[in-house]
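in:
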């Protein structure tokens, strides 16, 4: 069984200990480090290169949004899951734009948190229902300054729809019966043609363009 390495960044020691106690009960999850603030967390993540980081937002020094931005620069392969008590617009949108793959509230059940960690390791997003509703409201209307979807080939459209459904490159390759290398090439072309930075923006674009149902 593959083990998912996880790091905790939260300024409350009690919260970190509670998370560690639960996560260490999971056979496929290993907590490899923790930090009490964003600055130390970014430095430690650059050393440990964890697969998944649980990130608080409100901390002394640099906040979780800035820490996420710096962490993604120091450890691009690490998937950041925001785990916070706040679902305010001024925190949700900046965190997603900074590179967080998922946004969860601290009232999440332990089982759902473990599911979100496993999903993040597969490059799949999980959003708290309140956060998902905010994103859909923000991004549901098409915008006139977007690159037209007609630039994409039919196969790139297929890939974009599957990205919007949270599918990993391997799952897309299996679905379309092509190699992962081919999928990576399609993803790169999609991001370039539509002037998008990453898969999250691509998924949001697909939702705005109503290429997939908004569930």
């Amino acid at each position: 069984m593959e083990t998912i390495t996880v790091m905790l960044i939260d300024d409350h020691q009690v919260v970190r200990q509670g998370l560690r106690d639960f996560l260490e009960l999971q056979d496929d999850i290993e907590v490899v480090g923790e930090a009490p603030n964003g600055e130390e967390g970014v430095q430690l993540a650059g050393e440990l290169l964890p697969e998944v980081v649980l990130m608080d937002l409100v901390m002394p020094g640099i906040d979780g949004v800035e820490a996420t931005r710096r962490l993604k620069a120091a450890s691009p392969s690490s998937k950041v899951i925001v785990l916070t008590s706040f679902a305010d617009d001024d925190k949700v949108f900046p965190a997603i734009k900074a590179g967080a793959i998922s946004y969860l509230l601290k009232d999440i059940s332990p089982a759902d948190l473990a599911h979100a960690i496993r999903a993040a390791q597969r490059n799949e997003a999980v959003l708290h229902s309140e956060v998902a509703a905010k994103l859909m409201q923000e991004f549901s209307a098409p915008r006139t300054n977007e690159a037209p979807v007609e630039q994409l080939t039919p196969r790139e459209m297929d890939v974009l729809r599957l990205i919007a459904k949270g599918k990993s490159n391997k799952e897309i390759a299996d679905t379309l019966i092509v190699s992962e290398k081919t999928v990576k090439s399609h993803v790169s072309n999609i991001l370039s043609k539509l002037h998008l930075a990453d898969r999250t923006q691509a998924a949001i674009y697909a939702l705005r363009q109503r290429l997939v149902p908004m569930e």
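note: Residues 4-138 form a domain with the Rossmann fold fold (CATH 3.40.50.2300).
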